[in-house]
Amino acid sequence: MEEYKQRPPYQQNDYIGWIERAKREETKDKRLCQMLEELKTGGVYMKMNHPPSRKK
């Protein structure tokens, strides 16, 4: 949760909207897992390179 809160509000909104727009529950789960992995890893946002979130 801490990594999520450290992201800018537009990224937080993007992630939530992207997950919620999925029609199937399995797609929502897949997107949630992707978000959690990106937050854990750092340096990635929606499968794109994101240097400001890179972990040190």
Work out the strand percent: 5-15%
Strand order of the largest sheet: 1-2
**Helix content class:** 55-70%
SSE sequence, one letter per element? HHHEE
Summarize the main sheet. 2 strands, antiparallel
Rg from C-alpha positions?
A: 11 Å
Summed up, the helix count is 3
Stretches with pLDDT under 50, minimum 5 residues: none
Number of distinct beta strands: 2
CA distance, first residue to last residue:
18 Å
Described by the principal axes of the CA atoms, the overall outline is globular
Structural class: mainly alpha
Q: Oligomerization state of this entry?
A: single chain
Question: Would you tell me the overall average pLDDT?
Answer: 94
Overview in brief:
The chain has 56 residues and is mainly alpha-helical. The protein has three helices and two strands.
Overview of this protein structure:
The chain has 56 residues and is mainly alpha-helical. Helix content is 61%, strand content 7%. It has three helices and two strands; from the N terminus they run H-H-H-E-E. The protein has helices spanning 2-6, 9-20, 25-41, and strands spanning 44-45, 48-49. The protein has a two-stranded antiparallel ribbon. Strand 1 (44-45) and strand 2 form a beta hairpin. The chain starts with a helix and ends in a 7-residue tail after the last strand.
Give the helices and strands, then pairings.
Elements: H1 2-6, H2 9-20, H3 25-41, E1 44-45, E2 48-49
Antiparallel strand pairs: 1-2
Tags for this model:
mainly alpha, two-stranded antiparallel ribbon, 56 residues, globular, 3 helices
